[in-house]
Predict the structure.
Amino acid sequence: MTQIVRHHVCAAGVVMGLLATLAGAQTVPKSAGVGLPPDAGQASAGQRVMDTGTVIKNVTLISPERPNPMLHADVIIRDGKITKIGTNLDAGPRARRIDGTGRFLIPGLIDSHVHVDHSAALDDDAIEAHPELWNAYRAQVPRAYLAFGFTTIVDLDLTSSGRSWFESTPLRPRFFHCGRGIKVAGGYGAFEVPAVTSPNFPNLVYESEEAKHWPSSLIPTDYTAERGVVRDADAGAVCVKAFVEPGFGMFDWPYLHTGTLRQVRSAATAYHLVLMMHATGVDSWQSAIDAHADVIAHGLWVWPGDPANSSVPLAASKVIAEAARAGVHVQPTLQTVAGERSMLDPSLLDDPRLAFALPPSVIAYLRSAEGVKARSTLLEGYRKASPSPGFEALLPAAIERTRATFKLMLQDHVPLLFGSDTPAGDGFGNPPGLNGRLELQDWADAGAPLSVILRAATLDNAIALGQSREIGSIEVGKRADLLLLRENPLASISAYDSIETIFLNGEPIARDTLRSPN
C-alpha cells in the first residue's frame, strides 16, 4: 500500500512494428529506420525522409487548442511534420492516402511520469531466475507505451544504464527525462548509499537538517543543491525531480526540507529546468508549494489520523486550494495506489488489453505456481508492514483518499497534468502502457470532464515541459505524433481502447503489430 516501503523509487513504494494503415487505406511498404523518434525534436540517424508525404483524408480532427472538432478535415504530413490542415486538400498524386472517414484524429498522448527501467511484473528473484523473461519484458516496454497511444513519455528518475537501454530500442516513444531524482541520504530511494563508483549511486543533496544521516565518507560541499541540478542538466534532462517523503505517514525518514528545496528551485530556474517534487502528504505538498515547485508529481492521500478514515480533513482541503491559487501543476497518479489491488485480485491477468503491455511468456509466468507464490510472498510482506486494521482494510481507504482529493482538485481548478507513475511499485498492477489507460479511466470515473483529460494528456503536458512548439496538439509545423481512433474521446473514455493507428513522426503504425511475439 502507499505506506509501505518499496524496492522502486516512486510514490507507492516502477523490432519495429510493421507499418500499415486502416482497412480500406492503401498498403504501406516497409521501410528501414521508419518510426525512430527524434528525441527532443532532433531527427535520428537513418530516419527515412518522406519526400512524397502522407495525407489523412476526411477525418474528424480533435485537438485541445480548438474550441470544437474540425469535421471532414484533411491533414498533410511531410518529413515527420504537419504541413497543412484543411478540407479537400490536394497532397499530390504520389502521396500516401489514409481514409479517415468515420474516424477521429487526436494528438499523441504524453505520460509525464514513468520509470522505464523498473519492472512492472517481475520481482528480483524472477529476473535472476528467468533472464529470458526480463529480456522479453524490456523488449515490449517501449512498444507497450505506443500501443496505448503514448507517443511521448517522461522518466522522472532515470539511471544512465536505463537511458542507454531505452534509447537503443528500435521503436520507442519520444523520450524525455529528469535525470536522477534528487534525494537525501538515508531517505526515500536512498535508504542505503552505495559507493560513489556504483552505477546505483543516487543524486544526493546535503540536507543540513538531516545531517546525522549523512555518510561520513562524503564531503557535503560536493553535494550542494546546485550541483545536484547540474548533474541532471549535464545528463540532458528537461526537468529535475526532488523527493519530499517523510515516510508515508507511518515511518520517520529524513527528507529534503523547504530551505534546501528553495535552493533546488533557484538552480533549476538558472538551468531552465522544470522542477517536479515527489509529495503525497499534506506537509510535503505544503513544502512543494512554499518552494515554488512547477509540478507536484503525485496526488494527495497522506495525512495524520486514522489511516482507515478516507474523509478529507480541512488541512488537506486547504493545501489543495493553495496549490490552485499558486498555479502549481499536479499529477494525481491515481493508479499509484489503485494498482496495488492486483495483489488481492489478479483479474488484471484476464484483461485482453494486457497482451499489448506484457509478453505472453511473462503473463504465463504470472499465472504459474511460481508466479502465484511470488505474489503471495509480496502480499504477506505488505500485510506484515501494515498497521491496524490491516492491509485489506487500508487499501480501499487509501484508494478512496486519492479519489476524494482528486475531486477537490477538479472543484478548485488545480492545473492538472497526466502522469501514471508506471510502474508505481512491486507486482504487476501497473503494466507499461496499460497503466496509463487505467489512469485515464480513473480520472473519468472520478468525474473529470473528457476534454480536461485529453488536454492534460496532450497540450498541457507539452506546455509544462516546454515542448509545446513540437508536440501536444495538431497544428501546422508540429511533429506528426498522432492517434487515429474509431470512437470519439470527447464522448466516452472507452474511445482510448479504439486506437487503430499510431503516427510517430508521421509514420503510421498499426496497433495490432505492437503485440509482443514472445
